[in-house]
Amino acid sequence: MPGLNFPFVIGNWKMNLTPYESETIAKKIVAGLPPEGLPVEIGICPSYPAMERVQRVIAKTSISLGSQNMFWKEDGSYTGEVSVRMLKDMGCHYVILGHSERRIHLCETDVEINKKVKLALQYGLVPIICVGEKYEERQDGKRDIVIMNEIANALKGIDRFNQLIIAYEPVWVIGRGEAIDPNEAHSAIGLIKYTLKDMYPQKTIDEKIRILYGGSVDEKNITNFVDNENIHGVLVGGSSLKPEVFIGMIYNLAKKFIDSKLNS
């Protein structure tokens, strides 16, 4: 797996694809990338039923397995839930927590998200903590307070960790096929970094926390959002279901990264 200084591309397949379809797409992605890998950290988050089959496909590649969620208890009588121990046993490396679709449709609370983050870190998973404002919150000028509160609540009581990721996803653009202006994304990421400075030493932020952007990103606009100073990568939804698009995003990020190193 590439180091933390490389850009990220994390695909969230959501409630799409059968296990067979997931395996097929994973094989196409692997076949479209060079065996020696690229200077990009890559993750795929399939649905629970498809995780084992996808893991078999990517096991000997530079692609890591991620989960779309997990429960906040290690085990017990919680029908329909998936535990952190199950994810670890399947070879999972990342886990998406606090996604807006779970906050909205499944009424997931900040308290639950905080418990999940703590448990993920305890078991060595890298949490991808999603934050972002709804359309009405943006219209009411509440973007900043929403983002700051979601970060503070998700990380409450957490002062030691090896790595975590914050993903900014403006809720009002998810699934619309239209990304926000890159300057607006950079503004939100600046706010996230400002919020983190009140919580952690600068060394911890620089070395252990990565910040991603998510929201209608594709191979054509990805390099408008990602730079090596502020936005370290992207959390991708619909575009990650299209192997040729996802592969194109990875190559474009790799080229941008290599060019930046040659010109520095």
Protein described:
With 264 residues, the chain is of the alpha/beta class. It has one domain (8-67, 82-242): Alpha-Beta Barrel (TIM Barrel). It has eleven helices and eight strands. An eight-stranded parallel beta barrel has the order 1-2-3-4-5-6-7-8, surrounded by six helices. α3 (84-89) links the parallel β3 and β4 (92-97). α1 runs parallel beside α2 (51-58), α1 (19-31) runs parallel beside α11 and α7 (143-154) packs across α8. The longest helix has 21 residues, at 243-263. The mean pLDDT is 92.
Number of domains: 1
**CATH class, anyone?**
Alpha Beta
The helix count comes to 11
Average of pLDDT: 92
The CATH topology is what?
Answer: TIM Barrel
Task: Give the H and E element order.
Answer: EHEHEHEHHEHHEHHEHEH
Q: State the helical fraction.
A: 40-55%
Distance separating the two termini: 24 Å
Assembly state: single chain
Q: Structural class given helices, strands, pairing?
A: alpha/beta
Identify low-pLDDT runs: none
Annotated CATH homologous superfamily: Aldolase class I
Question: Descriptors for this entry?
Answer:
TIM Barrel; alpha/beta; eight-stranded parallel beta barrel; 264 residues; globular; 42% helix; 8 strands
Tell me the layout of helices and strands.
Layout: E1 8-12, H1 19-31, E2 41-45, H2 51-58, E3 63-67, H3 84-89, E4 92-97, H4 100-105, H5 110-122, E5 126-131, H6 135-139, H7 143-154, E6 164-168, H8 182-197, H9 202-208, E7 209-213, H10 222-225, E8 233-236, H11 243-263
Parallel strand pairs: 1-2, 1-8, 2-3, 3-4, 4-5, 5-6, 6-7, 7-8
